[in-house]
Amino acid sequence: MKILVLNAGSSSLKYQLIEMPAETVKCVGIVERIGMQDAIFTHEKDDKKHTEVLPILNHEIGLKKVAEALLNKELGVISSVDDIEAVGHRVVHGGNKFSKTVIVNQEVKDNIKELFDLAPLHNPANLTGIEIAENIFTSAKQIAIFDTAFHQTMPREAYQYAIANSYLDEHKIRAYGFHGTSHKYVSEKAIEYLGKKSKNLLSIHLGNGCSITAIKDGKCIDTSLGLGPANGLIMGTRSGDIDHSVVFFLMKKFNKTAEEVNNLLQKQSGMKGLTGFSDLREISEKAASGNEDCQNALNLAAYRIKKYIGAYATILNGLDAIIFTAGIGENSAIMRKLACENLDFLGINLDEKKNKVRSKEIREIQTESSKVKVLIIPTNEEIEIAKQSYNLIK
């Protein structure tokens, strides 16, 4: 079964065509800078890469360009759009309406639209991708996979905020969590890898966006992101946890609007706010060269991760393994090292030589005496989306 996986962002469109159930990736690509005259389209098949700079003024033009590439005699992988049996769509926010993957119908689209306020940068683009795909891939089933779905198993004490109950009951204000597709994928890989020694897991997703999830017996019981993807760990441009008094102080002291403070905390804070840079590779290089701001930022980010490891180890009543995943989690030896330092009392001991080895496979980087396994597991949200789409149809 050929499944097209789509991730429609506000100005981008990522895609992969995956053959299921073999999980074979036939091609990958991305449309960037949608809405611009100089948009960038990239399509890769095997070792062949095709790139174009051209005007792509909206998502419809972008997705038509994707379909054109999929049908191309040289770079394509299908002979007709009808060869695609399903299109799996990443949808960021499912609220409390969606706890599992669903086939898209009008009710599903209406519910996604109702959640625009909770994810104004993501859900509108996600819905646009669905509606355009319906018109291009007319014989395919449209499948919605929600970033928040994996976290719907959290108990009330984990997701409710300490504000009047009516805000939860009437307005659904609560913690939802994100990166659920990634956390689900790597935790299942860990369970498969560890077998019975996988009761209590921590999945640490470190990229431009970051989150940590506590997983007991394969189910999420707590996660660091909440109503929106802004709190918890320090991220590329987002502050993570912050005293809400800071928000009111900024508004009063500097006469900032709510929108201006939101922009500050979402786009100008985190590692970028601390250093002037948002790319961890550059920050790590400058830290190694003696840049004090960059050294401080790495320490702050690691300190925040360790606080959550300690808190979630308590909630889980013990740890069997912690998982590092996503771009930074998989590739930054320095961040893994700093995040695992001085956690001996939890039974976490990192082997520095193993930590520096790069590989695309699952690997253990703890010492022989470590009671807790420390794993690096490459995430693959596209494969997880394809797998969930395939299982739903079958």
Class based on secondary structure composition and strand pairing:
alpha/beta
Could you tell me the number of beta strands? 14
Share of β-strand residues:
15-25%
- Residues in helix, %: 25-40%
What is the strand arrangement across the widest sheet? Answer: 5-4-3-2-1-6-8-7
Oligomer: single chain
**What's the CATH architecture name of the largest domain?**
2-Layer Sandwich
Overall mean pLDDT: 94
Please provide the ordered H/E string of secondary-structure elements.
EEEEEHEEHHEHHHEEEHHHHHEHHHEEH
Rg over C-alpha atoms, rounded to the nearest angstrom: 21 Å
CATH level 1 class label of the largest domain = Alpha Beta
Number of discrete domains: 2
| Number of separate helices | 15
Largest sheet: 8 strands, mixed
Between the first and last Cα atoms, what is the distance in angstroms? Answer: 10 Å
| Overall form | globular
**CATH level 3 topology of the largest domain:** Nucleotidyltransferase, domain 5
* Low-pLDDT stretches: none
EC number: 2.7.2.1
GO biological process, one term: acetyl-CoA biosynthetic process
Subunit structure: Homodimer.
Organism: Polaribacter reichenbachii
How would you describe the overall organization of this protein?
The structure is a single chain. The chain has 394 residues and is an alpha/beta fold. It folds into 2 domains: 2-146, ATPase, nucleotide binding domain (Nucleotidyltransferase, domain 5); 195-376, ATPase, nucleotide binding domain (Nucleotidyltransferase, domain 5). It is 39% helix and 22% strand. The chain contains 15 helices and 14 strands. An 8-stranded mixed beta sheet has the order 5-4-3-2-1-6-8-7, with helices on both faces. Strands 11-10-9-12-14-13 form a 6-stranded mixed beta sheet, sandwiched between helices. A hairpin with a 4-residue loop joins strand 2 (13-19) and strand 3 (24-32). Helix 1 (59-71) crosses helix 3 and helix 10 (280-288) crosses helix 11 (292-316). The protein starts with a strand and ends with a helix.
